[in-house]
């Protein structure tokens, strides 16, 4: 059997979705915006306390570029910027709900890891 090269998208059609949705920090940002609504940068950073301001800025820019987050600039003194989840971002709700439901399996995953590690 001859094996030909395929792109990740051809091998697994959900690969591009996984790249977008499950990049580091994407899910906590989208979750916070979904749960708590429109927020300023400082509010969002406070809810995700382990993320650095630089990384939060980078991820918010990428999420805005991907259409999952809306950034609103208010020309005030001082300037105010708010972020909120877009309708496209909200459409990920069923996916996140399914993953949340699947999380009941995490104890079984931990048990499998412990069993595996014990054999090593």
UniProtKB/TrEMBL annotation:
<dbReference type="InterPro" id="IPR002577">
    <property type="entry name" value="HTH_HxlR"/>
</dbReference>
<keyword id="KW-0805">Transcription regulation</keyword>
<keyword id="KW-0804">Transcription</keyword>
<dbReference type="Pfam" id="PF01638">
    <property type="entry name" value="HxlR"/>
</dbReference>
<protein>
    <submittedName>
        <fullName>HxlR family transcriptional regulator</fullName>
    </submittedName>
</protein>
<dbReference type="InterPro" id="IPR036388">
    <property type="entry name" value="WH-like_DNA-bd_sf"/>
</dbReference>
<feature type="domain" description="HTH hxlR-type">
    <location>
        <begin position="12"/>
        <end position="111"/>
    </location>
</feature>
<keyword id="KW-0238">DNA-binding</keyword>
<dbReference type="GO" id="GO:0003677">
    <property type="term" value="F:DNA binding"/>
</dbReference>
<dbReference type="InterPro" id="IPR036390">
    <property type="entry name" value="WH_DNA-bd_sf"/>
</dbReference>
